[in-house]
Structure formats: structure tokens, C-alpha cells
Design brief:
Layout lengths: L4 E6 L3 H12 L3 E7 L17 E2 L2 H8 L3 E4 L6 H10 L3 E4 L7 H14 L3 E3 L7 H10 L7 E6 L1 E2 L3 H12 L2 H4 L1 H12 L3 E9 L10 E8 L4 E9 L8 E7 L2 E6 L26 E7 L13 E5 L5 H18 L4 H23 L3 E2 L2
Parallel strand pairs: 1-2, 1-4, 2-3, 4-5, 5-6, 7-11, 8-11
Antiparallel strand pairs: 7-12, 9-10, 9-16, 10-11, 12-13, 13-14, 14-15
């Protein structure tokens, strides 16, 4: 492997531009091209100007001959681009989800394993110290667990078109749901057995339902739900709920609350701001144990996360891991299989919405 990993960056939206910035500043990578099917209309960030630009994936692959390809395009292109890249001998970083159907997802993972190419998925919460701590604390709450997660976003300004175009590929509970279902699977370490979904189309301009709710039952008795809605009509009240409850207490991610332990949270607006999607500020730990008088033995604990990494730093961490995986030949079997598993669950929720029934998972 040469000193620098030559990388072709595909897609220059929110995530693509952030990952390109990470490659640009990481001395282990050399960007050999930027590709977008709408490159002519893209505003190239100043730090990325000067790199070769392409509007055709095949042409970009042929011209640049990359060691690695970073796929950050619309979800309905992910599997196609990944298969072409792996067959050309390149390692792949891919933003979630793996594909828009489980068959293609399994093909991509099987090919990466067969060709011994690294496939790193953009599950950004796996490199987020606050979320790692949240999962660690949640795993200590006993069984079964109750998991409550949501991320609703108002579509306004650039987010209006961004969300609408995403819905053309995947409904919200599928696109973002893979992150949070993956968290549920890490928390429980259990097998999902049943999925139920509900959905509604509130946005006339959107091609598919823009609101959805999925429920998952695990074989250890744990249950979880995830809610996601995008659109100009979505409420910003309780748009960010992230907590897990077990027999021993609960752990919650609290946005807008500092270590001072305020009783009332500061209102957090701009739900479509990508920096808010991973923001935690604090973890609130509640202990269920009571004494002889039935009062709680321990007070709730606030763990400050004010110094947590921002969105760009998290992307930097993802790409540092991608480089490490390539250079050290890391075994990525667990993370690849987990990506397929989380996609299987959210697609079952979409099937449940369409068929108006609960889906039993094999």
C-alpha cells in the first residue's frame, strides 16, 4: 500500500463535503477526484477547489484509478457504485444505508468479503464518545430494555429540497432509522423478532410518506420505537428523544442541558441542522433503587458532554478509522453484518406500513 491512499469522493452534499474535507486534511489520503452527477451546479468549497471534477462515475473510476472510493450520493446509487468500486479493486467508505433493498445490501457485503476489500459504513454514532457512553450505561440497566428514539426535522430553505429528494429514495424511518436501530441492537445484544410500522403522507410534494414510526420486539423481551418525520409541517416540540429504560433505571441523551442540572431544558430549534443530529450536551442517568421508605436511594446524575466532538470532527474520526482499517487490514465482519441487520429491520417496518401488518423476522 502506498504512503497515501488515493480516494475518489462521490457526492458533495452535506455528508460528502464533510468527508471530502476530512480526506483533504488527513495526510494519509490523497483526493484524486470529486464526482457528482450535478457537478455543474455544485458550489465547490474553497478548500476542495483544484481537484479533478467528474459527473460520470465510470469515467471518474477509469481516469483516477483510486485505491478507495467514498460514496456519499443518493441512497439508490449506493449498491451500484459500491459493487463497481470493489470489482475495480478499491476499498469503500459508504454513507448509510448500504442499499435500498436487502438483496443488494447482502451482495455488497458478500463481494467485499470475497474480494477482501474494506467496507466501512457511515454509522457516525459508532465513533461518537457520547453515544458510546450512552450505550455502555444502557447495557447496565438490566433486561428487558425499553428504547425510545426519534429525530423529526422541519424542512426549510436548503433542507426543503434535500429532504424531498431523499424521500424519493427512502422514507425517513428507513434512511435515518438504520442509525438508531443499530443503537437498539447494540444496547440489547439480542435478536430482533418482530417489526411493526405506521406511516403518513403529510407533504404533497414528497413522493412517499414523510412520517413514520417503527416498533421492534427483541427475543430477550426488549422493545424499542423510532420515529422520524421530515417536512415543512413537522413540529420541533419533542423532536429529539433519545432514552433507554431498564429495571435498574434509565439513561437519556439531553440536548440543551448543561451540567448545572436545570429543571427545564432550553428550547433547541433548527431541527434540520445536521450538527444537532449528534449533539448531546449531557447524559441524564436515573437510578431506580428505592430504600425502606420507598424514596430513591440515589439522585439523578447529569454527565456533561459539552466538550463533545462536532459533526466535522466526527467525520474526521470516521475517515481516520477507514484509513486504519485499510492499513492494518482490520476485520470488519461485525460492522458489515450489523449494517445489513439494521437495514433489514427498517425495511421490514416499511413493508409493515405497506402491508398493514406486523412483520415476523426470520
Amino acid at each position: 500500500m502506498p504512503d497515501k491512499v488515493k480516494v475518489l469522493v462521490v457526492g458533495l452534499g452535506n455528508m460528502g463535503a464533510s468527508h471530502a474535507s476530512a480526506y483533504h486534511r488527513n495526510p494519509g489520503f490523497e483526493i484524486v477526484g470529486l464526482m457528482s452527477r450535478s457537478m455543474k451546479s455544485k458550489k465547490i468549497p474553497d478548500e476542495l477547489k483544484g481537484y479533478p471534477l467528474f459527473e460520470d462515475f465510470d469515467e471518474a473510476m477509469k481516469s483516477t484509478k483510486p485505491d478507495a472510493v467514498s460514496i456519499n450520493s443518493w441512497p439508490n446509487t449506493h449498491a451500484e457504485y459500491a459493487i463497481k468500486a470493489i470489482n475495480a479493486g478499491a476499498h469503500v467508505f459508504m454513507e448509510k444505508p448500504l442499499a435500498t433493498n436487502i438483496e443488494d445490501a447482502e451482495k455488497v457485503v458478500a463481494l467485499a468479503k470475497a474480494k477482501n476489500r474494506k467496507l466501512v459504513l457511515g454509522y457516525i454514532l459508532r465513533v461518537h464518545p457520547s453515544w458510546v457512553k450512552f450505550i455502555e450505561l444502557g447495557q447496565g440497566l438490566g433486561k428487558p430494555l425499553v428504547m425510545r428514539l426519534n429525530l423529526n426535522q422541519q424542512s426549510n430553505g436548503p433542507a426543503w429540497s434535500w429532504h424531498k429528494n431523499l424521500i424519493d429514495s427512502l422514507i425517513p424511518i428507513v434512511d435515518c432509522g438504520v442509525h438508531y436501530v443499530d443503537v437498539m441492537c447494540q444496547l440489547t445484544g439480542a435478536k430482533p423478532v418482530r417489526v411493526h410500522g405506521i406511516g403518513a403522507k403529510l407533504w404533497a410534494e414528497a413522493a412517499q410518506p414523510n412520517y413514520g414510526h417503527l416498533h421492534v420486539t427483541f427475543d430477550d423481551g426488549s422493545v424499542g420505537w423510532y420515529e422520524a418525520g421530515w417536512g415543512p409541517m413537522m413540529s420541533e416540540t419533542a423532536y429529539f428523544v433519545k432514552d433507554v429504560v431498564g429495571p435498574k433505571g434509565s439513561v437519556s441523551i439531553v440536548a440543551g442541558q448543561a451540567e448545572s442540572g436545570k429543571d427545564k431544558l432550553e428550547e433547541v430549534s433548527d431541527s434540520a441542522d445536521i450538527d444537532r443530529h449528534t449533539k448531546t450536551d449531557a447524559l441524564k442517568v436515573h437510578y431506580a433503587e428505592v430504600g425502606p421508605d420507598k424514596n430513591f436511594v440515589r439522585k439523578d446524575e447529569i454527565i456533561s458532554m459539552e466538550d463533545e466532538p462536532g459533526h466535522q470532527e466526527l467525520c474526521d474520526r470516521e475517515q481516520a478509522f477507514f484509513l486504519k482499517a485499510i492499513r492494518e487490514d482490520l476485520d470488519l465482519t461485525e460492522s458489515m453484518d450489523a449494517a445489513v441487520n439494521s437495514l433489514r429491520i427498517v425495511l421490514a417496518a416499511e413493508q409493515s406500513i405497506n402491508e398493514k401488518r406486523a412483520i415476523e423476522l426470520a
